[in-house]
# Entry
Amino acid sequence: MERPADFSLLEEPEGRKAVLSGDWTATSTGDAAARLIDAFKAGGLQGLDLTGVRRLDTAGAYAVIKAVGDSPVRERIEARPETRRLLDLVGEAASQRPAKRKGPTGFYELFVRVGRGVFDLGAEIFETMVFVGHLLVVLGRTIVRPNRIRWPAVTALAERAGLDAIPIVAITSFFIGAVVGLLGANMLRQFGAQVFAVELIGIAVLREFNILITAILLAGRSASAFAAEIGSMKMNQEVDAMKVLGVDPFEALVFPRFAALLAIIPLLTFVATIAGLIGGLVVTWSVLDLGPSFFLQRILDNVGPSHFFVGLSKAPIMAAVIAGIGCRQGMEVGGDVESLGRRVTAAVVHAIFAIIVIDAAFALLYMQLDI
# Structure
């Protein structure tokens, strides 16, 4: 049974001394700690006796240390050996102050941060190469043995990542085509060449905006979803469980997403092309009074299908990059939610950046090839 903490003041030849009694624990200290602090503040105490304390924990020891403070009484505490050790331990911990971390200052710290960034970039490139190599091994394995492909997973992912994205891809491409048509009509009208707005819409939509808008929307929609799904499985140790069971996570998780996106992105590109052309047609019809038959005839005569195939040729590369970045970031998730959020964000940012760079590279390549 606990006894409440208490103390009494005794007059001795050396001066007054506080004699503690009872249980000085977190649940039984009560107001004794505050009264002990007031007694020391009043002055005149020359000693402290803890030999009569039955039980003492870290909360009680901290109360005693706080009451004594830096007064000379701290060196004249009477206590049992075990009580003395606890008081020394708590006193040492209480006397420590958190070290203030200085921010990076000067050129040295700047170079350190740059060096760490370069090292992290090198590690990121190395891990990317490892991921690509593993994925190529799985791809070759499935080509040799197609029965290893998990068709239900591929079909479900194609529906979720592709077919469910048709509305947003179509609406976005429609407005992009309308904006291009509106800008072209306003600019070309100044030169009396507003009829060429049809060619501008056709080339812009068929060659660039169809695949670019589709890839960017998939980067924000599918890359983040892939990273979050695989990352949550990594956090729950489901990926480790697959390895223990002899199942390759790349074959069960990465390849189905890679194949689903690779199969569905041409359809989304075609939908984006039709929607973009319809958006441009609506603008030219309403602003320039050019009918649908005239619009379509000029597209067939002056633009042709070659620009559409130029845009469609970028689709497999875009799909591979989006799926690869999303799955790789998911595989790099650690065991905390902060890591998951950081990797999902990185998946979207890296995928969009890669899409812009790849599109620019294709534009330069086709310009050199005069295609």
